[in-house]
Amino acid sequence: MAEVLSQAEIDALLSALSSGELIADDIRKDETERKVRVYDFKRAMRFSKDQVRSMTRIFENYGRFLTSYFSAQLRTYVEIDVASVDQLPYEEFIRSIPKMTILNIFNIHPLEGKFVMEINPNVAFAMLDRLMGGTGNLMETSRSLTEIETSVMEQIFHRALDSFRDAWKDIIDFLPELDVIEENPQFMQLVSPNETVAVVTLSVKIGEITGMINFCMPHVVLEPIIPKLSVHYFVDQQKSKRERPEDQETIKKQLNRAFVTVSAELGHTRIQVRELLELSVGDVITLDDSIDDRIKLFVGGKQKFFGQPGLYKGKVAMQITSVIDEEGGLDE
């Protein structure tokens, strides 16, 4: 991964290019001539390519969850995609994010440690504007959140963590719990500066406003589930889900406890509306069916049995005399 520059370093580079102190062609020439690649042992690559691909797949799924959730909450067009999945020292991640931003720090039981969701101020304030009844236009983002705004942000991102749990459920069933919302990354010390972290960047578009949401996940926290972040594990999980007989037995048990409506049809007849209105207690209605005809029994509105009426323990009951099979035949 290329080195992440801070905003001050980016400004200095642009200033040097514009003043002529640095020539772009020289940089390109230097890059093409370079044969040796320097390896920094402080930036150890602790996640394999296979594990990075797995995290990409997880967050692509999470992005779809967030798109649906934010679209419903903000009542506007929202698009969220995975922009990149990188690994870098924690110190470098802290230097790469703005000095004034929105940091949701949350626990992930039963794993020991915390994850961070960093929301670019453009995105955060656009959300707040929509939730407060505004149009979602770009607001002043260089200020701190008020107490009311902090409370609103806690509510919306607390529910967003439920989708985060769903996206990871094939790997681990953890319980994310929002701990605190910070605004200055210098006050957030989750792990040692040289600890490798996985940083997943989501590109977000809310109406006409664009920005980023970054997830910082320390390797030391993910370490217990690292073996599960592989393609082989995903394939085995999907295969085992299809073949597990206990799941079928669970479904049967749930269906056996379900309630259905059972009704008996005694017969048919046709009368005039005037006759219906003049009916009173003691009147007799003549049916078209014979007294010897079998009575139809329906389950969920579909005829399944034939039966005959009677009494059982002093209550009106129906005795099943035959069953209608799936092909319409009778099983006497």
Automatic annotation (TrEMBL):
NCBIfam families the record matches: fliM_switch (TIGR01397)
Pfam families, alphabetized: FliM (PF02154), FliMN_C (PF01052)
Record family assignment: Belongs to the FliM family.
Record keywords: Bacterial flagellum, Cell membrane, Cell projection, Chemotaxis, Cilium, Flagellar rotation, Flagellum, Membrane
Record bears the keyword tRNA-binding: no
Lineage: Bacteria, Bacillati, Bacillota, Bacilli, Bacillales
Protein's membrane topology: Peripheral membrane protein
InterPro entries: CheC-like_sf, Flag_FliM, FliN-like_C, SpoA-like_sf
Domain of life (superkingdom): Bacteria
Membrane-spanning residues: none
Residue intervals of the Flagellar motor switch protein FliN-like C-terminal domain: 254-324
Localisation: Bacterial flagellum basal body; Cell membrane
The protein, known as: Flagellar motor switch protein FliM
Organism of provenance: Fodinisporobacter ferrooxydans
